[in-house]
């Protein structure tokens, strides 16, 4: 499961980099990009948190969440991909 930033929406606030630095970083031009690595298991919550904290909702899941990770660990509510 991976996350993607919509470059047409991202305003470069960098909140995602602060919230989930293993999954979001700045490229050589200073634009934020999602690191395309496995975000399952323990990493899922960090990426989901970044997704929720993005003020303009520029982050989306690009694969379906695995069944075991389909619930928000803090609320127990189902997590749905944005899109
Ligand atoms: S938090 Fe959202 S707007 Fe800010 S850099 Fe990340 S993706 Fe872009």
Automatic annotation (TrEMBL):
Xref: Gene3D superfamilies: 3.30.70.20
Needed co-factor(s): [3Fe-4S] cluster
Keywords noted in UniProt: 3Fe-4S, Electron transport, Iron, Iron-sulfur, Metal-binding, Transport
Region (Disordered), start-end ranges: 64-83
Domain of life: Bacteria
Name assigned to this protein: Ferredoxin
């Amino acid at each position: 499961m991976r996350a993607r930033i919509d470059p047409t929406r991202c305003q470069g606030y960098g909140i995602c980099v602060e919230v989930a630095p293993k999954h979001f970083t700045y490229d050589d031009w200073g634009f934020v990009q999602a690191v395309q690595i496995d975000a399952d298991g323990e990493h899922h919550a960090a990426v989901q948190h970044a997704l929720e904290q993005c003020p303009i909702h520029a982050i989306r899941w690009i694969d379906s969440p695995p069944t075991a990770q389909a619930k928000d660990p803090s609320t127990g509510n189902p997590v749905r991909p944005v899109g």
